[in-house]
Amino acid sequence: xxxxxxxxxxxxxxxxxxxxxxxxxxxxxxxxxxxxxxxxxxxxxxxxxxxxxxxxxxxxxxxxxxxxxxxxxxxxxxxxxxxxxxxxxxxxxxxxxxxxxxxxxxxxxxxxxxxxxxxxxxxxxxxxxxxxxxxxxxxxxxxxxxxxxxxxxxxxxxxxxxxxxxxxxxxxxxxxxxxxxxxxxxxxxxxxxxxxxxxxxxxxxxxxxxxxxxxxxxxxxxxxxxxxxxxxxxxxxxxxxxxxxxxxxxxxxxxxxxxxxxxxxxxxxxxxxxxxxxxxxxxxxxxxxxxxxxxxxxxxxxxxxxxxxxxxxxxxxxxxxxxxxxxxxxxxxxxxxxxxxxxxxxxxxxxxxxxxxxxxxxxxxxxxxxxxxxxxxxxxxxxxxxxxxxxxxxxxxxxxxxxxxxxxxxxxxxxxxxxxxxxxxxxxxxxxxxxxxxxxxxxxxxxxxxxxxxxxxxxxxxxxxxxxxxxxxxxxxxxxxxxxxxxxxxxxxxxxx
Length: 497
Ligand SMILES: [Zn+2]
Fold this sequence. Notes:
Elements: H1 5-11, H2 23-29, H3 31-39, E1 43-44, E2 50-51, E3 65-71, H4 76-89, H5 95-101, E4 106-111, H6 122-131, H7 152-158, E5 162-170, H8 174-180, H9 189-199, E6 203-207, H10 223-229, E7 233-235, H11 238-243, E8 250-253, H12 262-266, H13 269-274, H14 278-289, E9 296-302, H15 304-310, H16 314-335, E10 341-346, E11 350-351, E12 355-356, H17 365-371, H18 380-384, H19 393-404, H20 410-420, H21 434-446, E13 448-449, E14 455-456, E15 460-465, E16 475-477, H22 480-489
Parallel strand pairs: 3-9, 3-10, 4-16, 5-6, 5-9, 6-8, 7-8
Antiparallel strand pairs: 1-2, 4-15, 10-15, 11-14, 12-13
Helix pairs in contact: 2-3, 4-16, 6-8, 6-22, 14-16, 15-16, 19-20, 20-21
The protein binds zinc ion.
């Protein structure tokens, strides 16, 4: 690495802003000693008692296993709305917030900035965790000069640990790639698929079959076959995943592109038949990786929460976040009663910052408007997939009513018609696209509205439990999580390559 953790820590602060830890302290406590000192203040313990000892990880190497759960593009409002939805319609709160309520996790805010912007993209965000370097947006674990940073999955692989990536996006997408791939441009997904073949991680599951398929790859290579020749089980369906005996290595590509949204999946028999969901994939990955005597690192991503944010789609957002929360439950089931598993729960950036707004007399309309989300049958992306510039306002109304279970007004349908024809312009020009207009119209009925259709600079939620989590303070720099994982798993020796 070109710069040490210590240097980076210092470069964040102006001289005199606080005392730098001495080299002796650094050696004694590991890099995370410095991390904990950097956060300052009094931190809480797992049982909620205040602690003053923030000397970092107590015994580096105690985390045999690490499960890193990411809801991609999860704004604070998304976390809130999934919790509200579960409380109002399922009689329980979200696992994520239950952990807060019960004082079982360390948590705080995290600064996810990339090398070139205070607004980050998923490639740079995942790279900051995956190699401990801030890189330019759209880049995976490389400097602008082409220097490759060693990735955390390579480090764990070389240390004899199990390695896994599970996602609802294409497996070649930014967040899984940020843990195991070096690529100057994240959109080179054919090349990312080929790099996975070389890197030989144990478990790869998600969508993105098209990047392994000879008919869809630019170079015509049959990567599914090449993975099989390397001894991988190649799973292409829910049944294939059931048939896999959790032995050896697995490549699961369960859909051509991203997996369907959870909401569309639950109402589309063909998807239900063919495509496994995130909790099931995570379970299968854990069953396989937990057989590794030396432990493992597994990243699990709910990637389409971000996509629903980009589309200003409350249905897509809430149901995928609820599914992510169920996946947190699976990880907690695994970690329960063990003292060797570090569970990190995070997001990589906000996206479109949705929120439930006040509505009605003394805001009494807000709850019942929000409750309409519970009746949704399909996402906004499902609605728009069958509409085009020639759609009539009636066709638009019918399609929306099927998805949302209530009609929209004719003037609203006509605005969508204008947007589909490219003739609609919002005051905030970013919001002129049909999907963002549809999101704004949806807000007339749900009271959930959005600031835009892209990522935001908001500091994000970070939570962790298990060995190493004691080093998490109130405010964390994204790259610190790389050091936390390497130190708590005791694999620092493999970080130099
Ligand atoms: Zn995004």
